[in-house]
Amino acid sequence: MTIEAGIFAHLIGNAGVRALVATRIYPLLVPQDVELPAIAYQRISGPRDHAHDGPSGLALARVQLTFVATSYDGAKSLAEAARAAMDGFSGVMGEMTVGACLLSNEMDQWAVAHEAPVVRHDYLIWYQE
């Protein structure tokens, strides 16, 4: 399993997130023709840790979650539900063992393709491969 698959499983398994988006969680971008609100996830970077004898099995993923909704309040509410599920999490995410999941950045934008407000979160996720 990849960390991306773990994030998908973690978000879809969270009752607060699922209540807002059902199964509308997509890799890379939210398709233009889907009902909103919805979430997209993508890895921004992913360095691996190494020791003197090679890879340690520990990895750090910078992952961006994009929350698109029909209103600014809707995008903020969805982002808050996801933050409650993700920020500070440690444990099993899908099948991945996560040591720490930390919100590192938050921004508000506009999705031209959807003509809708967007909130983006960047998370740093330390996990065992």
Distinctive features:
alpha+beta, STM4215-like, single chain, seven-stranded mixed beta sheet, elongated, 129 residues, 7 strands
Task: Give the helix/strand layout.
Blueprint: H1 3-12, H2 15-21, E1 25-27, E2 38-45, E3 48-51, E4 54-68, H3 72-86, E5 89-93, E6 96-111, E7 116-128
Parallel strand pairs: 1-2
Antiparallel strand pairs: 2-4, 3-4, 4-7, 5-6, 6-7
Helix pairs in contact: 2-3
Structure, explained:
By secondary structure, the protein is an alpha+beta fold. The protein is built from three helices and seven strands, in the order H-H-E-E-E-E-H-E-E-E. It has a single domain, classed as Phage tail protein-like (STM4215-like). Strands 1, 2, 3, 4, 5, 6 and 7 form a seven-stranded mixed sheet that branches. The radius of gyration is 15 Å and the shape is elongated.
Hey, roughly how much beta strand do the residues contain?
over 45%
Taken in chain order, the helices and strands follow as HHEEEEHEEE
The overall number of domains is 1
The coarse overall form would be: elongated
Radius of gyration: 15 Å
CATH topology, by name, is STM4215-like
Count the beta strands: 7
CATH class: Alpha Beta
Q: Biggest β-sheet, characterized?
A: 7 strands, mixed
What share of residues is helical?
A: 10-25%
SS-derived structural category: alpha+beta
Number of helices: 3
CATH architecture name: 2-Layer Sandwich
Question: Which stretches of 5+ consecutive residues score pLDDT under 50?
Answer: none
What do we call the CATH homologous superfamily? Phage tail protein-like
